[in-house]
Amino acid sequence: MDASTEAKYRHDGRDGSGPADRSGPSGSATLGTDPAEASVGGGSDLVVQKAAATQVLGWAIIVLSALQLMVVLDGTVVNLALARLQDDLGLSDSGRTWVVTSYALAFGGLMLLGGRLGDTFGRKRMFIFGVAVFTFASLIAGLATTDLTLIAARVLQGAGAAVASPTAFALVATSFAPGPVRNQAFAIFAMMTGLGSVSGLLLGGALTEISWRWIFLVNIPVGLLIVYKARTALPESQGPRRSLDVPGAILATAGCTAVVYGLQHGAESGWDSVAVTVALALGAVLLVAFLFAERNAKNPLLPFILFRNRDRVATFAAIMIAGAITMCMAVFIALFVQDVLLFSPLQAGLSFVPFAFALGISAQIASKLAVRYQPRWLIATGGLLVAAGLGYASTMTESSTYFPDLFIPILVVGSGIGMSVVPLTLCAVAGVRSSEIGPLTAIALVAQTLGGALGLGAVGALATARTLSLGGSTGPASAMNSAELQALGQGYMFALFVAAMLAVLLAVIVAVWMRFTPAQVAQGRVAQDSAHNDAAA
Alpha-carbon distance 386 to 502, whole Å? Predict the structure, then answer.
C-alpha cells in the first residue's frame, strides 16, 4: 500500500527528486516524460512499458481487485472454519490460534518490505510473484494433514500477501490515467475490502459446510487467473532503487512471533515453562534490536520522524488495540456459536452479517462527522459502544439464543467499530503532506494487523487459562463432556470481557492523548486525494 508514495516521502525535500521539486522557478516541469509514463516516487530509473489505461473497465482492474478480494476473504473465512478445522486435525487451542496468527504475523511483519521490493525489482513482477506464492501456499494449506504443515502454509500465504497487496495498490496508480479513471479504479479497489468482509461470512460458512479445505482450495483457480492475465494486462513500473531493510523486517517479524508463541503456549504449558520464558525473553530482545536497527538503517522500514507527534503515536496505539479487539471478537464469537451453541458454519457466517451492515452505516456517518467534530470524541464514543456490546455479549451461556443475546451486541459492536475505525484512519494521516500519506497509511495497516495477532495471542492465552481453571480442557470441542463444554464457553466469554476492557482502554487513550482537530483531519483527507492523484505523476 505504501509502495508509490513512500518513495516520494524519502526524497521529498532531500535530494530534489520528490514532488516538491518537480518544477523549476518558472513552474515548468523538469521531467521530460509523458504523464502516463512519469516517474513514480522520483528518480530516473522508472520503467513503464505500457501506457496508462484511459478507461477503468478491463483486465487490469479485474486482476488487481481480485487480489484484494482474495486477501480480505482469506482473513474472514478462516475464522468460521476454525472449529471444524480443530476437530479434523485434533489441534490444541494454541495450535488453532496459530492458524490465524501465523498468517497475520507474516502479512503484517513483511508488508513494508513487500512494498519496497516492488519499488526495487518492479511492481508488476513482484505482484505476480506474490500472487503465485499465495496461490501455491493455498494449495498446501488445502491439502494439509498436520498442524505444522497448515501453519507453515499460512506463513507462506501471509508472505505472499505481504508482497502482492502493497504492490497491487501501487499498480492501481500506475495502471490508470490520472483523473476520474484513476479515482474510479481506487474506489473499486477499496470497495473490495467491504465486499470481501461480507461475502467472506457467507462464502466461508458455505465452503466449510462442505469441507474446511475448500476455503483454501478456492483460491487456486482465482490465483492462477490473476497470474495469467496480469502478465499482459498490467504495465511494469518501479521506483528508485534503494537498499532494502531486510534485517528490520526479519527482526520485527521474528520478535512478534516469539512474543505470540510465549503468550499462546503459556496457559497450556505453564508460565514457568522454559520454552515460554525463553520465547518471551527472546521476543523482547528481538524487538529492542529492531528499534536499534531502524535507528541506524539507511532506509528504515519504520521512519522514527513519523512518530515525533504525540497525537499520532496515540493514534497508532489505538489502531493496534482496535485490531486486537476486532480479531478477538471475530474469532471467539465464531468459536462460541459453533462449539457451544452448536451453530453450523453457515449459520455462524449469517449471524455476523448484521455486524458488517452496522459497521458500514456507522462508518459513513463517522466519515462526515470527523471533519466537523474532534475525532477523539467520535473514537471514544465508538470504543465505549464496543465495550458495552462486548460486555453484554460476555454474559452469554450455553442456553443463550441468537436474538436478543447475540444479535443486539453484534449491532452495537459493529456500530462502535464503524464509529471508531474511520476517524482513526483519518487521524493516522491528519495534518500531513501528500508525500507522507503512503508511509503513514502502510504503518497504520501494519499496526492493525500485528495488533490483531498480538491481541489474539494474549487474549487467547487468558481464555485458555480461564477454561482450565474451571476444570475444562483444551482440544476439539467434539471430544468434551457437558461440564468441559460449559468451562470452554466461559473461557470464550472471558475473552470477550477482556476485549471489552481493551475497548475502554482505547477510549481512554484517545480521549486523553489525541488532540487532532477537524481541520487537521480535513487536511489529511485532502492529502489522501492528492496522494492518489500524484502516485503515478
Answer: 9
Q: Can you tell me whether residue 29 is helix, strand or coil?
A: strand
Q: Which helix (H) or strand (E) holds 185?
A: helix 180-210
For the chain, the maximum distance between any two Cα atoms, rounded to a whole number of angstroms, is 80
Rounded Cα–Cα distance for residues 412 and 388 (Å):
8
pLDDT tens for 403-440 read 999 999 999 999 999 999 889 988 988 887 766 777 78
H-run or E-run covering 333: helix 310-339
Q: What is the dihedral of CA 299, 301, 304, 308, to 10 degrees?
A: 130
Kindly tell me if the per-residue pLDDT of 374 is higher than 70: yes
Query: Which residues fall within 8 angstroms of residue 76, CB to CB, at 6 or more apart?
Result: 196, 197, 200, 201, 204, 330
The residue type of 223 is: G
Q: Three cell numbers at 495?
A: 475473552
Measured distance CA(336)–CA(44) in Å, rounded = 56
CA angle 514, 518, 520 (to 5 degrees): 75
Whether the per-residue pLDDT at 46 is higher than 90: the answer is no
- The DSSP bridge partners found for residue 176 are 53
Residue by residue, DSSP assigns 450-490 as HHHHHHHHHHHHHHHHHHHHTT---S-GGG--HHHHHHHHH
Is residue 194 over pLDDT 80?
Answer: no
Crossing angle (nearest 10°) for helices 310-339 and 407-428 = 160
What are the grid coordinates assigned to 285, written together?
Answer: 530482545
Q: Which residues share a beta bridge with 116? A: none
The dihedral formed by the CA atoms of 278, 268, 149 and 344, expressed in degrees to the nearest 10: -150
**Residues 6 or more apart whose Cβ sits within 8 Å of residue 217:** 138, 139, 142
State mean pLDDT over 290-319: 87
Give the model's confidence band at 532: pLDDT under 50 very low, under 70 low, under 90 confident, else very high: low
